[in-house]
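In this section we walk through a basic example: taking a raw amino acid sequence and producing a predicted 3D structure, encoded as discrete structure tokens. The instruction is simple. Fold the sequence below.
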Amino acid sequence: MKVLAIESVKLFQCIISNLFESNDISVIIKATGEDALTVLNTQDIDVICVSMYLPDTDGIALSQKIRQLNKYKHIPIILFTSEESPELLTKAMSIGVTEIFNKKDIQQLVIYIKRFTIQHQNIDAKILYVEDMLSQRAVITAFFEELGIQVDGCSSGEEAWEKIQQNSYDLVVTDIILEGNMSGIGLVNNIRRMSDNKGDMPILAVTGFDDISRRIELFHLGVNDYVIKPVIQQEIIARVRNLISLYRATQDQANLVIDVFKKSTEGVFMTKYNKTISSVNKAFVKITGFSEVEVLGKSPMWISTKNTDDNDEIWKSVDNTGSWEGKVMRKHKDGTIFSAWLNLISIKNPQDIITHYIGRIHSYKER
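The resulting token sequence is shown next.
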């Protein structure tokens, strides 16, 4: 990562140089706005740090000029200042400054910049990119491949659906409007109905519409995040990186849960967001008599003796409060009825959208 620091005070130049270089950050230091613009026009810079006061200009005016350069429209610009003024903050943010740091907080600045070092590292991942505009697909695919991402490109929902059934991906990026009989929404629906782990893979939607109703619709369908056309390179890469990182962290946690899940003496089942069973453990099979194959894709209430209204109340309680527990009557595969204690909880993603439900069931004996 290469940082350009624009600072005229010699003492602060030394502090920046020593601090950044000791943290393995490559830094170029210039004292004037004119010299800084020369560097920006001749080199590729990843982060710009500019002092508020310079001999030939000020940090806000210089930042505004930098934002007018095409290749620096979206990279981080950090303003150094000793002032603490809400008016300054408002003015700086309005012209494109990313963040303001007080000069006394230089240590925190290094931590902040290191975040962008991580953002520039290659991503070892495989994604499926669905876009029916060839030119758009070529440009975005090039963005991804620059970061070491392996990309399978498709022009239709039907082609993408076939690839998903045959391959594993870390992420699906799909336009919502596609040519052919299967739209991006149809593709998302098909993925989320898959009973194996593929049904949980993250999905990034690309849409030309940015309104509240569309956002709510996408999240309820099971889309994890979305970007608006025209796509900005830095935005889509940041969202792809975050979704893949989050998915892998979630998978690591899920593997721990699955280990406990398999060893539990209680009957445990997991469902997808649509309340259909995605997996059960051996204890569940033993308690109910139904094999995993027989219950996959079915509601856990399928073996309930309660009426539909009662089951709806259970789900409503879980969706509203996060959990429900109580005595239920269950039907064994052999037809016998038994009492059981059911505990049901919802699992949400960082956007506060329910993605899974986990239930525990064990035989209940009256005291």
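Looking at the output, two observations stand out. The chain has 13 helices and 15 strands. The chain has three domains: 2-119, 126-252, 264-363. In the next section we compare this with other chains.
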